[in-house]
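Below is how a single chain appears once it has passed through the pipeline. First comes the sequence as given, then the structure the pipeline wrote out for it. We keep one example in the README because the format questions we get most often are answered faster by looking than by reading.
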Amino acid sequence: DVQVLPSFQHYEPQAVAVIGPDSTRLALTTAAVLSLFLVPEISYEASTESLSLKRLYPSFLRTIPSDRQQVKAIFLLLQRFGWTWVVLLGSDDTYGRAGLDALQELLTASNVCVAYRGTLPANSDASNPELHNLVRILTEVKVNVTVVFSTRGRVPPFFEVVVQKNITGMVWVASEDWSLAQAIWQVPGIQTIGTVFGMAVEKPEPTMLERFEAWKMWEEGAVAECGSSAEAGRESVGSTRLDCTQCCTGCRALATVSDMYDAQGSFSVYSAVYAVAHGLHDLLGCASGACSKGTVYPWQLLQKIKQVNFTLYKSRISFDAHGDIHKGYDIVMWKWLGPKWASDVIGTFRVNPDRLSIDPGKILWHTEDGQAPRSVCSEACKPGEMRLQQSHHKCCFSCVACPPGTFLNTSDPFDCQACGLDEWAPAGSEVCFNRTTEFLSWSNPLSWALLALAVLLMLLIAALAVLFALNASTPVVKSAGGKTCFLMLGSLACTCSSLFCYFGEPSQAACLLQVPLFAISFTVFLSCVATRSFQILCIFKLNARCPALYEAWMRRHGPVLFVAANTVAQVALCVATEAASPSVPRREYGVRDEWVVLECARSAAADAAIAYTVLLSAACFVLSYAGTDLPAAYNEAKSLTVSLLLHLGFSAAVLCSQGALRGQAETVARVLSTLGTLAALLGGYFVPRAFVILLRPHQNTAEHFQMVIQEYTRRLAA
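Resulting structure:
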């Protein structure tokens, strides 16, 4: 009959703990069975990451690091040398598949691409077509780094094919299982394949290595002695050092197996035994000097083993929540001293926290220039160039410079990001720059020069007004328009004052006054000029032919009505245009990439007011030109005509330069145009009269004017 236990709490197996086995394949089976009974199992060789799953294998522990740590070490090694284009090869078993899966998951989340992933066939030799196909693919994908995550038995045939195909100068990264295996480095010609790095479990204390070496020599001699005794037919070898009670004819063969005495593997077994011993010591209460004789149940021992924490030859032995030991790896490199193989530790990988350290001075690169080979699908782009994907591999790309106004953020090398509204960037930029704010500031030296000219003109206008006021009753002032002169000078002063709206950062008030103040003031001046020119023409040319016209003009206050009508029309036009499209401060970004222009928004409707003044200027030009043959005292046609032509020229220049000049240059052009117009009109109309008043007083008399009129009359009669 089979006895069914209600629970395993009081289950008493013959063994309360198991040490081993030495392979992942076997460990997966034994761990599944022993976990049912919560029998502690400590493996010294099985490293696959799945054994860390406590819900599946609650009683499994190990004294070798999990492949999770080995995968991290390989990943950091690839990153350390900038190898982003690699091939992954693994054995077709749990160890190889799980290792490559974990490594590829890390690589996929980083900047390293897997050019090809392949499997080393089982039970094959160098003639296997699959191996030849793998090696062919290695050469086609043009990689310089290959990671081989495999058990040691699958690797020798592969490297035999590599040697046959004369593949040299590559970098090979070996997993822990075969990195120091004698069966691999004994492959003929393997020293030509390139640089071989490998993962090796962190070495134990040197004194421990020396002790293992002594045990090795001692046991080899003892086993040989036992074997020779068997051959001689002796049944007992009690005098041997091992105190053998039974001789084995196969002992000599076991003693010669390659890698039989691997120091690290031996230390892992040693650590497992000590972990069980410490667990038993704690469970039985041996610390008091006498151990308990009570029954030891596996689940009790399991709890104690999980809690062990001791030092063994300066190596800390303890287990984490997954049953894994806290150990790192040594990074080893194969080297050849003639035909003799050796390995050298060129770096380390330590855990908690994960960190990799490499000593570059110890590395011997098997390349033409003696430098670390590059293994990339595409060369790195220049600063400011984005990557344009060429395939499903993110490491394969072409480089395209970021267009102006964008920059390449290091967090996303595949897309250029737009700069902010107040920023700019040239083509191929990695950063954005602040735009220069462009406007004609008060502190600009050019502004000082323009303001000085404007002030001088206003002082000139004031001086002329004073001069004309002091000589208001003289013929020169009366012929210039009399009291109308003061309206004309005042309008020119207002026109000049509009220039102050162009300086400094544009404001709502400045933008509102710029065009209307100039247009209305200048309209008043031009209306006065046109009225005065028309009156002179009427007196000297039209009065004789149509005297009623001039009388009606004067009787119905024609001059006042004309000036008022033009002014009202201009005011209405300005109000309408400002209401339709208000002139407000704005930031213009389209002038130049590196500028943000602060200006007053102007529309085509606003230019209508300026066009109106141009029409009045043209009318004044026609009237003044018609009076070229009038008496000299009343004839300012030449100077006024030139002044009006200059004004029209300035206006045309500003109009034509609107598209070409922006920012400060546009503002300066408008100010200079207004200054030039004012200077020309003052110089053509008022300055000649001031010259007569100040320097030729004999011409500022009624007699002189009568004489001039008489000469004009005689000339017409002749």
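The chain has four domains: 1-64+294-326, 67-202+328-362, 385-434, 452-717.

See the next section for the split statistics.
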